[in-house]
Amino acid sequence: MELAFRVHHRLVRSYRKDRLFLMGDAAHVHSPAGGQGMNTGIVDAVVLGQLLGDVVNGVRPEAELERYETLRRPAAQEVLDLAGMMTGMALTHSPVKRFVRNLVLSVLNLTPFLKRRIALKLSGLSRAPLARLPAPACEPGAIGRTQPKANPELKLAA
């Protein structure tokens, strides 16, 4: 009996629906190749947390919550593409394809520039710009002074 290893690569259509936000494995699922899943989910949480905190504290308008998907969806797509490529390379059954894969990896290992690019992709550092929020347009609390009072059900974060 032959057991099959199946990998599903999925990315949600939208990271937000009204007041519901998706992040981590709820937003993107892929092969464990490259070890990117947990880090991608953690960065999703950090970016969303920063945005939500800024909105609740009046530093950013609520419309800026759209930045979450704008930043994180491309990062997740890069991870899915990289994991898919690595999984395909690792699971190839053809002796000719395995030989070519090994030859290409040997050449890449001898090229410092390409080796560094691969290391940056595998570490996630190449996606650092997709984890940084631009500076807010105003001082803390300024949004609340210029617009109607915030929702009383929301609590200000410290």
What are the defining features of this structure?
mainly alpha; 4 strands; 5% strand; two-stranded antiparallel sheet; 5 helices; single chain
Overall residue-averaged pLDDT value? 86
The CA-CA distance between the termini, in Å, is 58 Å
Helix run count: 5
Contiguous runs where pLDDT drops below 50 for at least 5 residues: none
Describe this structure as you would to a colleague.
Helix 1 packs antiparallel against helix 2 (67-90). The protein has 5 helices and 4 strands. It is elongated. It is mainly alpha-helical. The chain starts with 9 loop residues before the first strand and ends in a 12-residue tail after the last helix. The longest helix is centred in the middle third of the chain and has 24 residues, at 67-90. The model has no long low-confidence stretch (mean pLDDT 86).
Give the gist of this structure.
The protein is mostly helical and 158 residues long.
